[in-house]
Amino acid sequence: TKSTGLESPKADNRGTILKWVYGDLQKSRWMMGVMNAVESSGFPLLYESARFTRMWIVQEALLAKQLKLHYGTFSLDWEDFELVMMLIHAVNAAVRSPMKSRESFVKYAWALIDVRDHWQQSTGNSDEASEIGYYMHQLRNRRCKDDRDRAFALRGLLPENAGLDITPDYTKPVAQVYSDFAKAQLKLGSIEILYEAGLWKRKRLSQPTLRDQPDHPSSSDYLPTWAPDYRHDKTFTELTEVRFGTYFGKDPKVPSNIDFSKGPYRLSVRATLIDIITIVQPAIFVHDEAHRNNDILMFLSCRRYCMNLKERLDSRFENRQYPTQENPTTAFAYSLVGGGMDRAYNDAFNSKPNEESLDPLRLWKIYENHCISESGEVYAAIQRELLRPPERQKIKGIGVDFYRSGSAEASIAWNYQHHLINIFRRHWFFISDDGYTGLAPLNSTTVTDVLAFIDGAN
Q1: Does the global pTM surpass 0.90?
Q2: Which of 118, 126, 189, 336 has the most crowded Cβ, counting Cβ within 10 A?
Q3: How do the pLDDT tens digits run along the chain, 458 residues long?
């Protein structure tokens, strides 16, 4: 594992593995051997075991200075377990092949490694309300007999003099525990929970009336849209992530203005309206299982989606300037990748020394030339793949020899497409009435959403 250059769970380990393997057939075979070994290993017995998957072990795993795993007569130091899991995670991301028990691997093994690494890297000066919300979000898929314990089981991670109170009270319904917790966070200025307001999948319950009794189903189960729902069977498997080098958090200069006085379920915020939304373009195909298991289907759908976006933008700005006086194509290229300032972007396209720095406009032009153009190298290679014998050895619908040929620019275009797919899994493209373009959270609509600066948000 160490010879591959893997460093920590937070690093771009997929990119590290790909650089290490690039152009070396023996290393490529070794990488496939890793996945074969995973298929026959007994690791799922460990990370799918009843104790390992429980919410209540998180405090032990994070607070322990030294950690050792025991299963029957076998034992394993946490550092060795982390290294092996890191290798599996990186290789699986690199080859994108189906993996036995991948869902439980991500939910239980990788999530715990990720939050333990986060805990160890924490400076102790972090905002406690934001930090505990981070752990609840990251660990929402762990098993828990009582959903109230998704909050209560993490009480030990707060300092003794914490301003955030999550004292266990099992007389409260689950929804009240979550909404009280969200209120406490917001009152302490943790406004980032509004980043995903309304996006959680939940029961369709009407808002209770004041006549409802406390034990009435509509009042005990109702969770306001601004309160995160941490029940794993209610949440999306992939919620929107705060990305792109910016932090949707507390503004150190402008105080938030949040009002809870209009009823137990309603929240009002003061904000500056920028514009209304006129177009939202969802990328539904990225969530389709058939597409996720077939890179040819994914390529063709992503190509069609990007062509459609560009055509809509071109028709919108025909003989017009972008609101910031930029060239519309430049604005579009930067909007697609959220500005191109985040670590994932730089790791993918600007991490190799002595090579040309690739800004978002240059990348879009490369993608247009090689993927969208019918004479493009990648598009032509995909068309040839469709004509080849189906019995060839393939990875996600593409022959293994597909990756051994092609120009450097074609490789960049292919990697750019996968970068876009990762973005489209968590964001939808929008155009506002004045013509601003950008990335919106999943499930945004032209009916319910506007573009605004919220007071108190950075």
Answers
A1: no
A2: 336
A3: 666 667 677 666 777 777 777 767 787 788 788 888 877 887 788 788 888 888 888 888 888 888 998 888 888 898 888 888 888 888 877 776 677 777 778 778 888 888 888 888 876 666 777 788 788 878 888 888 899 999 999 888 887 777 788 889 999 999 889 989 888 888 887 887 787 676 655 555 555 554 444 444 455 678 888 888 887 666 554 444 444 444 566 787 888 888 988 877 888 889 999 999 999 999 999 988 888 888 889 999 999 999 999 999 998 888 777 888 888 999 999 999 988 777 778 877 876 666 677 899 999 999 999 999 999 999 998 898 888 777 665 666 676 666 667 788 998 999 999 999 989 988 889 999 988 899 887 778 898 889 988 888 87
